[in-house]
Write a structure and sequence with these properties.
Helix content is 79%, strand content 0%. With 181 residues, the chain is mostly helical. It is globular and about 50 Å long. It starts with a helix and ends in a 6-residue tail after the last helix. The model has no long low-confidence stretch (mean pLDDT 92).
Length: 181
């Protein structure tokens, strides 16, 4: 690809990534704010548990993907990271489906565990909003073979994404006893 074409492509991709990185959290926040829930069936009550598994697998895939790239196994790294990215998309779908069809679950823990839970939850939510931009840019740079930029972006994307997926599992395990189903 010629330089001028790449610059235009990068500009369009950057615009798209910025829009998606803002739109997704805004749409999710708006959907969470809807008081009227939609009856999608009782199967949606299993979604938090499925999402806990998805986050667990994603955390493992991120570590394995990092291992593969350190071993210079690019093909295995690519496959692993694309699997993690795909699971992230499935997580988001499951998260939205659950929250538009079920009431929020309150954390019932008392004592010292309560502020720990809320610290993890708030940092998890905040960084989950931020990480999307880094991950989308890292994927774009990899797909367009801009590996220097990909590597720079992943220095931020990997630790944030790993924190978000790992704290997602921890928060799920902490609130799991309080689900009504």
């Amino acid at each position: 690809m010629e330089t001028a074409e790449l610059v235009k492509s990068d500009r369009n991709a950057n615009r798209f990534i910025n829009i998606v990185s803002i739109a997704v959290p805004v749409v999710v926040a708006l959907m969470l704010g809807i008081r009227q829930k939609f009856d999608l069936g009782s199967w949606t009550t299993y979604l938090p548990h499925i999402n806990g598994v998805i986050n667990s697998i994603t955390s493992v895939l991120l570590v394995v993907g990092y291992y593969f790239i350190r071993q210079k196994n690019v093909a295995a790294h690519r496959a692993t990271m694309l699997a993690a990215f795909t699971l992230g998309a499935f997580f988001l779908i499951g998260y939205v489906l659950y929250h538009i069809s079920n009431p929020s679950t309150s954390f019932g823990g008392q004592g010292w565990i309560r502020p720990v839970y809320y610290f993890l939850l708030i940092s998890h939510i905040t960084l989950s909003v931020v990480v999307l931009w880094f991950v989308l840019r890292a994927v774009y740079f990899a797909l367009t073979k801009q590996f220097v930029l990909h590597k720079k972006m992943t220095r931020w994307a990997l630790p944030i994404w790993l924190y978000v997926s790992t704290t997602g599992v921890i928060v799920y395990l902490m609130i799991r006893p309080y689900y009504n189903h």
